[in-house]
């Protein structure tokens, strides 16, 4: 292995990012203290194809704003896929609503439309699908179900900057959606997120709640709010990355193809491929061990770590956590217990992928 250690994730930072952040640190105060925030929000909204965007401290806080703007609270149920990062469930608990966990599709790991429909009760008020690991949710099936039952769609698109369904950003299928720019994502701002919507009323509510509930442009507090707005310095890094976003998507898609060419056809190893109407951003190339190998998933990860290759397990399915009632979602459980995210750090080149895949095959005994 020519590198000391292969990291599981990490961004692509060029002179553009360094110059832009330097500019923000040099000039981005006094009357310019919001310049990068405004440019980032405006251009990100254009990129996604929505009218409104609010840059936030994280996707979690953007998702909390969605829940608050939707008016969800005690007695309300929100349907979420069982396989995701905990924010997909915790933002509902913050407001007293109840997350209801449903199963995922075996080929895309996104919410199963059939499981969603089966879980709807009179208490269901909203649905939070997740473009997990950058594959588009099946909105062609999910939107009609939600419209039929009068349910709001508030999407967790945290890992899905650049993901398209039928040529449109997945966020455009939702009433509100959130993206993440946390440091392990494809496009980063360190920590950070973006709330997006086409609905002016929801935007105004979320915008006020993101800034302490103040009357816009004043120090008068009209309601108790939160302190969720991104800083100008953080926005400058996100803004610089946005100028390169299509290059970043292309890099991840290339990396995925290299992995797929080497591992995708091995019996017992499953890698998801994007559906024909979807452009996945491929930000987390992953494998699931379906066959009988020399080691199991955790054994593979341990031995890869011994050989200086970091990986991540697929997220644990959420309903098993102690604060929830465990649900029987067999696909989510199987993927969570047998899958790993392969290294996706931006510096990884084809030679690294060759080396990583040789190590995987050696440890598995194939
Ligand atoms: C599916 C999903 N939802 C939400 C989040 C939370 O994003 P953030 O760390 O920006 O709050 C993540 C981050 O990993 C995620 O993967």
TrEMBL record:
Organism phylogeny: Bacteria, Pseudomonadati, Thermodesulfobacteriota, Desulfovibrionia, Desulfovibrionales
Name recorded for this polypeptide: Perosamine synthetase
SUPFAM superfamilies associated with the record: PLP-dependent transferases
InterPro entries, alphabetized: DegT/StrS_aminotransferase, PyrdxlP-dep_Trfase, PyrdxlP-dep_Trfase_major, PyrdxlP-dep_Trfase_small
CDD domains the UniProt entry points to: AHBA_syn (cd00616)
UniProt keyword list: Pyridoxal phosphate
Family the entry assigns: Belongs to the DegT/DnrJ/EryC1 family.
UniProt keyword Protein biosynthesis present: no
Keyword Coiled coil: no
């Amino acid at each position: 292995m020519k590198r000391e250690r292969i990291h599981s994730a990490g961004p692509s930072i060029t002179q553009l990012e360094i110059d832009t952040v330097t500019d923000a640190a040099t000039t981005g105060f006094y009357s310019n203290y919001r310049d990068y925030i405004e440019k980032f929000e405006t251009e990100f909204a254009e990129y996604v194809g929505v009218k409104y965007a609010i840059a936030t401290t994280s996707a979690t806080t953007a998702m909390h704003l969605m829940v608050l703007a939707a008016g969800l609270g005690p007695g309300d149920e929100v349907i979420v896929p069982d396989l995701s990062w905990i924010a997909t469930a915790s933002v509902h608990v913050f407001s007293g609503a109840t997350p209801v966990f449903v199963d995922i599709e075996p080929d895309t790991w996104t919410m199963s439309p059939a499981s969603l429909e089966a879980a709807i009760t009179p208490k269901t008020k909203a649905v939070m699908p997740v473009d997990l690991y950058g594959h588009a949710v099946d909105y062609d099936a999910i939107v009609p179900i939600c419209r039929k039952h009068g349910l709001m769609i508030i999407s967790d698109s945290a890992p899905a900057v650049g993901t398209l369904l039928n040529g449109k950003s997945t966020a455009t299928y939702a009433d509100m959606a959130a993206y993440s720019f946390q440091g392990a994502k494809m496009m980063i701002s360190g920590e950070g997120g973006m709330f997006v919507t086409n609905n002016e009323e929801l935007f105004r509510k979320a915008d006020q709640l993101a800034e302490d509930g103040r009357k816009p442009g004043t120090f008068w507090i009209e309601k108790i709010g939160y302190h969720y707005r991104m800083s100008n310095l953080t926005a400058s890094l996100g803004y610089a990355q946005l100028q390169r976003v299509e290059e970043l998507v292309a890099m991840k898609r290339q990396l995925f193809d290299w992995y797929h060419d080497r591992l995708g056809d091995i019996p017992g190893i499953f890698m998801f491929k994007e559906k024909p109407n979807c452009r996945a951003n491929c930000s987390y190339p992953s494998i699931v061990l379906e066959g009988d190998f020399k080691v199991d998933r955790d054994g593979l990860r341990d031995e890869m770590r011994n050989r200086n290759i970091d990986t991540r397990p697929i997220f644990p399915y959420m309903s098993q956590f102690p604060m929830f009632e465990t649900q029987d979602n067999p696909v989510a459980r199987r993927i969570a217990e047998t899958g790993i995210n392969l290294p996706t750090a931006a510096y990884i080149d084809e030679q690294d992928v060759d080396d990583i895949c040789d190590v995987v095959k050696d440890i598995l005994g194939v």
